[in-house]
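Table 4 source record.
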Amino acid sequence: MRGSSDDRFSPHGPIRSALYGVLWAAIAVFEKASRACLYLSAGLLRQEELRDIGRRRAALFPAPDEHMDAGLEPWEERIYFRVLRDADRVLVVGCGGGRELLALSARGYRVTGIDQVPALIEAARRHLARRGLAATLIAAPVETAILPETYDVVIFSALVYGYLPGSEGRLATLARLKAHMAPGGRLVTSYIEGGARSPLGLWLVRAAGLLGRTDWTAGREDTFALGPLTQRLPFYERRMSADAVRQELSAAGFHVIRDEPVASWRCAVAAVGP
């Protein structure tokens, strides 16, 4: 076996080498075709269908006791407790099985958790009861949920903000949250840093959206990944530049206090004026 001058592997023998090269060329073509099909299929989806896929994606991850009892991650400890003040009312968006709710409630904060997966809200309810803690729980998408009170701090759980489809939808959600925040309220969100996606991929998503008359427009930083093939799930997320996050938060009436690297992504802290 040998490597060619351009470092592409090839077996010995002209016939085997030729067949091997043809097959790998076909793999590359089919891989690109598969990616194109993924973007076209994703472009056919409407916002509620993307939310449904998000619910299915979140339901793939269990909420075992040991994970829920693990407490806050080191970066969460550092960021959250720079932002939180005594007696703050806290809303956790995408609370899942309740890990952050348990940690914050145990420290005396009045906490509300919201998640679009009812099974995860029930898991959070069980974990809170098991620990003798209390929190308000809402099983609904944050985009449409009825929020029962005003909050001093809104925390988007790790990377949840980037799962909200469409810039228009994210801005509308930020506006709804801002209306339920106290003067001087603070917002914490984390995101995977990235640049613009493939122009061809973006064109395919938008073309399929026009064909399917969908209710959102894909942005340059929106991306899709294959979920379980048996379930036909395209996983959506937005990989944002720091400038894009700042612009989006500013457009919703927040000003960014800090934006810094945490774990393998970044975290932005923003405030709403008095």
